[in-house]
């Protein structure tokens, strides 16, 4: 028996040794993205209101009255009844290919579907109806897999005008390093790939939002523009002139008559006193990183996430003094691990720090933030501070927290799977 064991061990060592020789540091694991496409005819007929289903990849969250809308990245929206925050209930799934954002006003829901704007009547939440679709109003919109190292087959789809990209299939593959280009820089031409010759009030989105309703206007950012829509007639929005805003625009936040845009290159501040034509006030450049922004008083709070093709190597929270709106100045920086969304309620700031969990700080003194809570061992992505409680989404799980004087506590945890 001992001799058999020795022979088997010898074979295992021999096999591992051969594998090491074959690899010899020449191979690496890559995240490879392959485009998921539809014909344009199929794409425009594919919206449906379906029964509840399991989530595939949780994205952003949006709250409206007693309902929560959770984006399923590039697939659509999960509609949840949150009348009882201790026990939320799924109602339906809005299948919207290529969807990443929504915004709601007076029971009318606006959603992007890659290049198109889709309008829904949600006055009867159990019988949602599509009422309109504006085609090709987001010509610069493309769902881009920034988390991927390699993007394959894009040239084929770029020249096939009958196809539209509605998502990506991402898998880990081991490849020879010297034969694997990983430069997936996306220029303006590629951004234009998908182009072709209580009842009422508005809801609350998180800092990762690309949609924002202000009065009778909907502002929607794509990678380099502010798309402006007049929504005086909610079910028949008017596509107004786009405003060029730069490159790599990612998020939008509103305060009064100002818009704050987060991009991979900086924060841009726009004046919307004339709502049809946002005009640039100033900008704050921070290098290259993925970031959203929220504003409170004289300060803008910006999370920067390095790595994953975001450009920067380090991640952190930047606090920018905007007391002089025409001259924003960096006041303080705090290190973070992999921050995504953030939110503010009174003197608390909530930061989704990826796999490092949800962090809650007292921001009374922005030069000396004090950690109040750290909910670790959970994945965190987007957060929405409501009047009475906090919503947070991460890895297909909806968390709700109650506010306390110097902390927050978990109210409920609801899996969308």
From TrEMBL:
Protein species of origin: Spongiivirga citrea
Lineage of the organism: Bacteria, Pseudomonadati, Bacteroidota, Flavobacteriia, Flavobacteriales
Entry protein name: LVIVD repeat-containing protein
Top-level division of the source organism's lineage: Bacteria
A Pfam family annotated for this UniProt entry: LVIVD
InterPro entries the UniProt entry points to: LVIVD
């Amino acid at each position: 028996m001992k001799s058999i064991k020795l022979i088997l061990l010898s074979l295992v060592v021999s096999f591992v040794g051969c594998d090491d020789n074959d690899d010899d540091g020449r191979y690496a694991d890559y995240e490879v993205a392959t485009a998921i496409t539809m014909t344009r005819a199929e794409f425009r007929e594919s919206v449906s209101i379906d029964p509840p289903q399991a989530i595939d990849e949780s994205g952003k969250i949006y709250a409206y009255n007693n309902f929560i809308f959770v984006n399923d990245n590039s697939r659509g929206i999960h509609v949840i009844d949150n009348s009882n925050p201790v026990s939320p209930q799924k109602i339906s799934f809005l299948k919207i290919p290529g969807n990443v954002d929504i915004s709601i006003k007076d029971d009318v829901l606006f959603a992007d579907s890659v290049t198109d704007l889709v309008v829904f009547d949600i006055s009867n939440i159990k019988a949602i109806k599509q009422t309109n679709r504006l085609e090709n109003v987001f010509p610069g919109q493309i769902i881009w897999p920034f988390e991927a190292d390699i993007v394959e087959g894009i040239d084929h789809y770029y020249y096939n005008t009958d196809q539209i990209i509605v998502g990506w299939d991402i898998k880990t593959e081991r490849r020879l390093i010297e034969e694997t280009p990983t430069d997936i820089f996306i220029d303006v031409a590629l951004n234009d790939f998908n182009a072709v010759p209580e009842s009422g009030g508005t809801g609350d989105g998180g800092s990762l939002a690309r949609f924002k309703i202000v009065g009778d206007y909907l502002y929607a950012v794509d990678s380099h523009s502010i798309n402006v829509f007049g929504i005086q007639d909610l079910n028949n929005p008017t596509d107004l002139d786009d405003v060029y805003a730069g490159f790599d625009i990612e998020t939008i936040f509103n305060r009064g008559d100002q818009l704050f845009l987060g991009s991979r290159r900086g924060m841009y501040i726009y004046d919307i006193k004339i709502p049809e034509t946002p005009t640039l006030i100033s900008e704050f450049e921070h290098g290259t990183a993925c970031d959203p922004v929220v504003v409170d008083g004289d300060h803008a709070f910006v999370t920067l996430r390095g790595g994953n093709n975001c450009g920067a190597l380090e991640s952190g929270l930047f606090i920018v003094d905007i007391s002089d709106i025409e001259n924003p100045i960096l006041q303080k920086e705090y290190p973070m691990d992999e921050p995504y969304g953030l939110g503010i309620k009174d003197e608390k700031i909530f930061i989704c720090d990826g796999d490092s969990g949800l962090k809650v700080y007292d921001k009374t003194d922005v030069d000396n933030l004090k950690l109040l809570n750290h909910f670790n061992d959970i994945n965190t992505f987007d957060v929405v501070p409501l009047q009475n409680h906090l919503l947070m989404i991460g890895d297909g799980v909806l968390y709700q927290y109650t506010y306390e004087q110097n902390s927050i506590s978990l109210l409920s945890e609801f899996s969308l799977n």
